[in-house]
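Incident review: delayed structure delivery

Summary: a single-chain prediction request sat in the queue longer than the usual turnaround. Root cause was a stuck worker, restarted by the on-call engineer. No data loss occurred. The affected request and its eventual output are reproduced below so the record is complete for anyone auditing the incident later.

Affected input:
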Amino acid sequence: MRAGAATFAGSVFPISVIAQGIANYPNRPITLIVPWAAGSGIDILHCTLAEAASKHLGQPMVVDNKAGAGGTAGPATMAALAKPDGYTISHVPIGVFLLPLQQKVSWNPLTDFTFIIHLSGFPTGLVVKSESSFKSFRDLIEFARTNPGALTYGSPGAAGSLHIGMEVIARQEGVQLTHVPFNAGIETAVVGGHIMAAASGLPVMKPLIEAGQLRVLTVFTAERRPWLRDVPTMRDLGYDFVLDAPFGIAGPRGMEAGIVEKLHDAFNLARKDPKVLDVMNRLDYPDRYMDPQAYTIFARHLFNEQKRYLETIGLAKNN
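Output delivered after worker restart:
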């Protein structure tokens, strides 16, 4: 269900969940904020999850698309305005952890959210044109070593997780790369020879990969992708990196444990639903499930890891 019924639902059911008691939760529709455009892959996944979860909760789950600020506008709005009653929750992208490290924001990623369930990450990798002389990731690094600054690569945006990861790799290898940020069309820029490589989402590049126009040198996920079994992960290559922009679902801080448990259980069942599994498989989203406790611990790890990376490449804000 899309946003539109949310205001009406709130007026029909004005009694707070705290007054009703956790046992009666939920007794009205729940809003799931998706901070990306309607119709995007991540939106399709969350719409399917919301539909499946609603069956276990006994109430509709309304998907509210609040795109903007690199996926942080929606979670930030929730953190600032939503009550911790379990009726407003949000997709949480890696930008929620990155942006506070780069500029002043209105939220703290470690104290302003109640982490409910970690779900997945974006399948990403590094590609070159099929005719490229780079047959492996090591070929690319050796070229960069002997030609400082000559290797051009694109990513979906400056200071995003892929740009950060590539620059950390460059520092570790002692090479200089030239980054070119893209809003769209990164895969065609590689095919057209405008840039030499691209670090980006694999589903976007899949048609050109399968058509033989792009070669994948490495994937940034924790495990090899089922349709790219011969392509190594960064860990296979000896790097301690996973650059898949992990994401999950959280609510505002202060949520009751019983409500968190009900939401977690509903989403945990939903992620095993055949329709959800079909979307996960079609869009190549890896399974990175974590329960609330594990997700809370991971959130701190992710924040500290990204802080270390940003400080390493000089993109962290000055306190």
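Verification: Residues 292-313 form the longest helix (22 residues).
Action items: add queue-age alerting; document worker restart procedure.
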